[in-house]
């Protein structure tokens, strides 16, 4: 057992970086036991040295000189916690080139540039660990890459964006609008000042992309699959869904069906008897299906300081003991399933939820159902409540109409939607969501 | 990357053994990719060669000569699937002594004899892998030993016996008696002809013992903590619990509280808003709490041919790539928390559910509540329904009385129970269960 210390540098001392430092410093003995050697936090790189921090680091650890850290041959591992692509990509490449292993939580970077980074790391005999990049403290990457290694993963259905899940939970449980729920998420620290990447579905889609790459070895670009956020939903949608026995979640899905990969990340109606319907606040929940093990579910905090730091430090221990060096070069990344085709989005077959605001007058329902019928879409259920107060600018009362369709294809549904939008009797908003069942 | 094959022998070709062979034979290429070398099923040891099997093995693989397998220096790994202690213990020791790593699903053996086996394996530089021994296909051992390595695990609350969970689900969902539900479990293959170890709580307690040993490094014997099975429950208990907003599960619990370990495995009332209340049929579900990551939940099939085989083969790949050799000697087994004391069972503090059959006459309720009051137990809620038809052998109608207490200690509750059982007004059965909240 090697007892030489593992020298570590953290780049980016934000919330997660401070959490990692806290674990390494506060429980050094326990970490030494588990790693079989001391883990020594040698440097922590920040942009602004003068900013106050609520963690005490030894003299000389904090620096704003990233070059000195990347060039320091004594440093074995870089914990790369800078977000976005630029300069994170360069930092990571330089770390690898200078012989360091990298632990990161940056899912945007791995989703967009993972292929070249993984490739370079492998050529250099280094490894990249990223348990923290997807589902925070939930042991999802480890499960996909180790526990399920006797399986072909055939289905991933996952709630991967804690911010969106928190907002949806707030809206429904506290009867508040989307805007108020976003404000509350910002106050509690779950949403950034600009929460766009969370609420528009990008974050969930990036994480799904990483999971698909790990389980099938193929990269699917963000523009190659359906992606939609919760930012187009209103409280009314959640209430109608509930009335019908469903819960709305931002659901990322990858299903292997007859050699085709169905993939999308969208707000989705989930039946209340599906375990994925029951995950509240900023928690993540993931259903994985393997052809041997069947379905397994994992859940826990997908973000937050200590949950994410826990995943980062677990990876650090993987590096320290040598597990990472074994696991990384044998990921399914390197055994791509080129036989699998991405299912064209038009062919994806599901049921749909449709909320329309329509004029309350004769023929309207016939007009709408005729359009659906022309596209061979049949109606499974329909809810129309009485008209609220009448808008004086309208000749007729405007009433909400909620339709659940039977199974149809995305292509047919989109074509019907386009036609419906042209009807005189329909007012905005026009809300559509797929149903998972 | 080593490309020499890993030679494997399975001892015990029952349901799980056949499942393991099926994965190794049917998807040899995929396993080779993931293991970095071929995994070669060299021998499969059975007791009775003449028994028909629904798996086709190459000429010479099947044998009833266990010695030739244990003495075969070419065999690298033994998959030990013989249940019970004897001869499983000897087989495992001999396998280790002859230089083989061992993968096993035998939780009884690990719970009772784990210490000496682990010790011997470590002295010999070998490893023992046992993902399949606890919670079948759920990646629980891996999560406890790898993903949570930045944490002290502070709480384990788990549904670990699929047979009991199936029986409880059947009883409640199909309104059938305990005996009928056991019969149905036997028909579907979830329960043995003699299901004693499953339904009396032994199996769940053994698994809890393994988890505690892995997360705290201390061995707690089966006689050192409260253990109770579902075999004393009736449908009425599940219905009363439901009426009060709870679900009854066989729950294994280990909580670290101020340096003391509270530990028990008993049928327990779980509030319906707790995720552990929602796991049906033969599924397992586990809530783990770590001091960094917070709570995480895992669920999936805890038994069954392919789910268990999936865990066995994952371990086999861990051995093939060298991960097992790294992980095993660094388990927390080797860093025992001797500072932790087992909380005396009398001091465990919980709420309780109590179902009594009592005479329907004046003073009875006063007598009962006086006994509870004498032991400083106060009543949180009470349900008494009207008397069913009168038994002609009784002078008074006999009515069921259900009491939920406020929090009290096990010691007080047991003392009160003993006194209650002496009261003339009480008839059998006398059902008590703790409440988890």
Describe the structure.
- 2 copies of one chain form a homodimer.
- The first copy, chain A, has 437 residues and is α/β, with parallel strands linked by helices.
- The first copy, chain A, folds into 3 domains: 6-137 and 307-333, Rossmann fold (3-Layer(aba) Sandwich); 140-301 and 337-342, Dihydrodipicolinate Reductase, domain 2 (2-Layer Sandwich), CATH 3.30.360; 345-436, ACT domain (Alpha-Beta Plaits, 2-Layer Sandwich), CATH 3.30.70.
- The first copy, chain A, has 15 helices and 18 strands.
- In chain A, the strands form 2 sheets. In chain A, strands 7, 8, 9, 10, 11, 12, 13, 14, 15, 16, 17 and 18 form a 12-stranded mixed β-sheet that branches.
- In chain A, helix 1 (15-26) crosses helix 12 (305-321) and helix 5 packs parallel to helix 10 (202-216).
- The mean pLDDT of chain A is 95.
- At the A-B interface, helix 2, helix 6, strand 12, helix 12 and helix 13 of A face helix 2, helix 6, strand 12, helix 12 and helix 13 of B.
- Strand 12 (294-301) of chain A pairs antiparallel with strand 12 (294-301) of chain B.
Give a brief rundown of this model.
Chain A is 36% helix and 26% strand. Chain A contains 15 helices and 18 strands. Chain A starts with 5 loop residues before the first strand and ends with a strand.
Defining traits:
homodimer, 437 residues, alpha/beta, Rossmann fold, Dihydrodipicolinate Reductase, domain 2, Alpha-Beta Plaits, 3 domains, twelve-stranded mixed β-sheet, six-stranded parallel β-sheet, 18 strands, 36% helix
């Amino acid at each position: 057992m090697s007892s030489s210390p593992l020298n570590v540098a953290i780049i980016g001392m934000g919330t997660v970086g401070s959490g990692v430092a806290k674990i390494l410093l506060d429980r050094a003995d326990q970490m030494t036991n588990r790693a079989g050697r001391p883990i020594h936090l040698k440097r922590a790189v920040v942009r602004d040295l003068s900013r106050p921090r609520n963690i005490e680091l030894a003299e000389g650890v904090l620096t704003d000189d990233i070059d000195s850290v990347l060039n320091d041959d004594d440093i074995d591992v870089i914990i790369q916690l800078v977000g976005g692509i630029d300069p994170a990509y360069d930092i990571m490449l330089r770390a690898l080139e200078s012989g360091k292993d990298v632990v990161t939580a940056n899912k945007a970077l791995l989703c967009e540039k993972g292929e070249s980074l993984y490739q370079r790391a492998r050529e250099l005999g280094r490894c990249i660990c990223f348990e923290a990049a997807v589902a925070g403290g939930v042991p999802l990457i480890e499960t996909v890459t180790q526990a399920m290694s006797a399986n072909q993963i055939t289905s991933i259905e996952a709630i991967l964006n804690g911010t969106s899940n928190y907002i949806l939970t707030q809206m429904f449980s506290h009867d508040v609008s989307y805007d108020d729920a976003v404000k509350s998420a910002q106050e509690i620290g779950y949403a950034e000042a600009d929460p766009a990447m969370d609420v528009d579905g990008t974050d969930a889609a990036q994480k799904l992309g990483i999971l698909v790459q790990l389980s099938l070895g193929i990269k699917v670009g963000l523009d190659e699959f359906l992606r939609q956020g919760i930012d187009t939903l209103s409280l009314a949608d959640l209430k109608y869904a509930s009335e019908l026995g469903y819960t709305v979640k931002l659901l990322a899905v990858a299903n292997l069906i007859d050699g085709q990969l169905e993939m999308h990340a969208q707000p989705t109606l989930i039946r209340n008897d599906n375990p994925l319907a029951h995950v509240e606040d900023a928690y993540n929940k993931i259903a994985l299906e393997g052809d041997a093990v069947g379905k397994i579910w994992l859940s826990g905090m997908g973000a937050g300081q200590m949950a994410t730091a826990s995943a980062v430090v677990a990876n650090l221990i993987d590096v320290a003991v040598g597990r990472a060096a074994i696991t990384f070069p044998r990921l399914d990344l390197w055994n791509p399933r080129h036989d699998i085709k991405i299912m064209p989005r038009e062919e994806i077959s599901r049921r749909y939820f449709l909320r329309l605001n329509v004029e309350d007058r004769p023929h309207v329902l016939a007009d709408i159902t005729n359009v659906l019928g022309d596209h061979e879409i049949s109606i499974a259920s329909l809810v129309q409540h009485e008209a609220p107060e009448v808008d004086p600018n309208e000749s007729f009362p405007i009433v909400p109409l909620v339709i659940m369709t039977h199974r149809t294809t995305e292509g047919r549904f989109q074509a019907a939607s386009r036609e419906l939008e042209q009807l005189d009797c329909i007012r905005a908003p026009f809300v559509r969501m797929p149903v998972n069942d």
